[in-house]
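Hi all, long-time lurker, first post. I run a small reading group and we've been trying to get comfortable going from sequence to structure in the token notation. Rather than ask abstract questions, I figured I'd post a concrete chain and ask someone more experienced to write out its structure so we can walk through it together at our next meeting. Sequence below, copied exactly:
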Amino acid sequence: MQQLIASLELTPHIEGGYFKETYRSEAQYTTLDGQSRSLATLIYFMLPSGNYSKFHKIASDEIWIYQAGSPLLIHMINQEGKLHTATLGLDVANGQQPQVCIPAQTIFGAEVLDAHSYSLTSCMVAPGFDFNDFQLYDKAELMERFADLAPIILHLHQ
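-- Answer (accepted) --
Happy to help. Here is the structure in token form:
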């Protein structure tokens, strides 16, 4: 795993795991509030087992694409506060999906399914990712808003 991190030039991500932006569209999009964003962006994202992508949200749709390693559990909290978990992986016959779309403004986090492994994905964001559109949630805020989801909140925010 360390060799792959070095070879892909991944760096630590604030939400957990490692990433590297590999594409940023030169075409621009103007948001409803007048902000300029790239039309789309693409990153590598690697999450080692025992490390978590903490709950966060962004202002755009994000598509996660399975690349290698263990399947990945993506936990999503929709606008109504309902939890849905999708499994990103290649075992389609058992409910895994090679691509998972997380709708804009959805609070989500992720974890690797298998112990002693990692999950390598690509994540495409459209309109393109900008850290100004990124909100990382802390455990206390999530617990206050979604007390019924305490087990998964506490799990991803260890």
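A couple of things your group might point at:
Residues 139-145 form the longest helix (7 residues).
The chain is about 15% helix and 45% strand.
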